[in-house]
């Protein structure tokens, strides 16, 4: 596909010499495979992100980081202000009738204690503006090229179009060879569960805490994230799927959980807490769903999450609506208790909302402050992006952020997997350990080791 002369002339005619950045977007007439755009041949090693929405209506791949906002602290307001300033300096040009699809992508570490050596490639707050963005939305494909005004080259659009047209050939993945597969501090983790349960039965100060644990897998060869993402897509999970690269590190999450979505002055969020394993027997599954809906521990845990979210959003919303009883959310291997929540917004700062909502009791605990304090002082290792908010803001300050569970951090030959579960006063260490084992499954399958 060659960029027509009249389109080039249209782009040139719309360039504003007073702006510091130019972002040009065209609609593509073919369907590139976005996963394959992560290949290193595109010459932006360590500078890719990928995002697929839960309903698959939105899929995008960012290639090359034109700008990075990276802070050593959790700076929600500074990141938001940075994006507003960029937009004021941005000359947007689109050669189609739909909205411009440029996104500011990134996230925040779980807490201020998260920035340890294994997470050093990421900032505590880290957002990127892609030089090239390929977007699939509602069946249409778009290419967005953004650059400094004094470096903008219209021929770069044609160069990337040529790359996209040749990147669709599928490469067969090879079977990974595992050198070592080990749980990290598994016995210590079980002992910690027993400890916190004992504390809860002696005092009501802490009523729920989510404890995470890790598994580390070392491979003979470097982990191929393209293969991992493709396996995740092929699994047909009803989940978000994302990748965020920085330096030598690659973070992947296949999460069912949305933190929030902001669209046209509305807040959409949900509570997901309470889990039971799904089987291949549909009759048995009906019984399991009934069991989950009537199980006091899971209902207790779910109610905490709903109440906490309602409390957290009251200061910046009005007209809050939610179902009084949870329904069942079905994933490929698990059933979850689920409650949908929506409200009218009083603020357009999506990152302020992210800050207020994170972490929900589904990933932190209840009461929130006491639970986070316990996690920071007692949990083994640091969470980094596990359970943390990752997502995007667009040019209209709409956006969506997920809770990045079912996740792993990849560095060369090593993948560190994360999972967690909610601990309440009647929890048992062995059953909670088994639940976290189940939650490793999506990433184990992505890696091709089960």
TrEMBL record:
Any Pfam family matching the protein: Chorismate_bind
GO biological process, one term: salicylic acid biosynthetic process
E.C. code: 5.4.4.2
InterPro entries xrefs: ADC_synthase (IPR005801), Chorismate_C (IPR015890), IsoChor_synthase (IPR004561)
SUPFAM superfamilies: ADC synthase
Residue stretches making up the Chorismate-utilising enzyme C-terminal domain: 186-439
Record has Isomerase as a keyword: yes
GO MF, one annotated term: isochorismate synthase activity
Keyword Lyase: no
Gene3D superfamilies the record matches: Anthranilate synthase (3.60.120.10)
Keywords on record: Isomerase
Catalytic activity, as annotated: chorismate = isochorismate
Protein family according to the UniProt entry: Belongs to the isochorismate synthase family.
Stated name of the protein: isochorismate synthase
Species the sequence originates in: Mammaliicoccus sciuri
């Amino acid at each position: 596909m060659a960029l027509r002369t009249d389109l080039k002339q249209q782009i040139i005619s719309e360039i504003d010499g007073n702006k510091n950045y130019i972002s040009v977007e065209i609609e593509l007439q073919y369907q590139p495979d976005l996963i394959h755009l992560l290949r290193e041949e595109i010459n932006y090693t360590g500078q890719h992100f990928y995002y697929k929405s839960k309903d698959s209506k939105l899929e995008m791949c960012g290639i090359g980081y034109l700008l990075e906002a990276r802070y050593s602290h959790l700076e929600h307001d500074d990141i938001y202000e940075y994006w507003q300033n960029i937009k004021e300096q941005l000359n947007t040009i689109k050669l189609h009738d739909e909205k411009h699809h440029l996104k500011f992508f990134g996230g925040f570490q779980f807490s201020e204690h998260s920035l340890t050596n294994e997470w050093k490639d990421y900032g505590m707050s880290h957002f990127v503006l892609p030089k090239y963005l390929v977007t699939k939305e509602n069946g249409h494909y778009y290419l967005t090229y953004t650059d400094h005004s004094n470096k903008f080259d219209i021929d770069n659009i044609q160069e990337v179009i040529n790359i996209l047209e040749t990147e669709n050939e599928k490469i067969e993945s090879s079977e990974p060879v595992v050198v070592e597969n080990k749980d990290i501090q598994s016995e210590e983790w079980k002992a910690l569960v027993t400890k916190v349960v004992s504390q809860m039965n002696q005092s009501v100060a802490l009523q729920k805490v989510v404890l995470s644990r890790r598994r580390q897998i070392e491979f003979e060869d470097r982990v191929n994230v393209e293969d991992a993402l493709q396996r995740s897509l092929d699994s047909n999970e009803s989940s978000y799927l994302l990748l965020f690269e920085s330096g030598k590190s690659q973070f992947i999450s296949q999460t069912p959980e949305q933190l929030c979505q902001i669209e046209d002055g509305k807040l959409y969020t949900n509570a997901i807490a309470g889990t039971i394993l799904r089987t291949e027997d549909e009759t048995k599954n009906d019984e399991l769903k009934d069991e989950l809906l009537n199980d006091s521990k899971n209902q207790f845990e779910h109610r905490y999450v709903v109440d906490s979210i309602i409390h957290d959003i009251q200061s910046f919303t009005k007209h809050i609506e939610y179902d009084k009883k949870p329904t069942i959310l079905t994933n490929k291997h698990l059933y979850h208790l689920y409650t949908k929540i929506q409200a009218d917004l009083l603020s357009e700062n999506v990152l302020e909302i992210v800050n207020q909502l994170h972490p929900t009791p589904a990933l932190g605990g209840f009461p929130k402050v006491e639970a986070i304090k316990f996690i920071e002082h007692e949990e083994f290792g640091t969470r980094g992006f596990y359970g943390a908010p990752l997502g995007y803001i667009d040019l209209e300050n709409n956006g969506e952020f997920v809770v990045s569970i079912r996740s792993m951090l990849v560095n060369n030959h090593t993948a560190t997997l994360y999972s967690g579960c909610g601990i309440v006063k009647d929890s048992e260490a062995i059953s909670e350990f088994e639940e976290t084992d189940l939650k490793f499954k999506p990433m184990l399958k992505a890696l091709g080791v089960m």
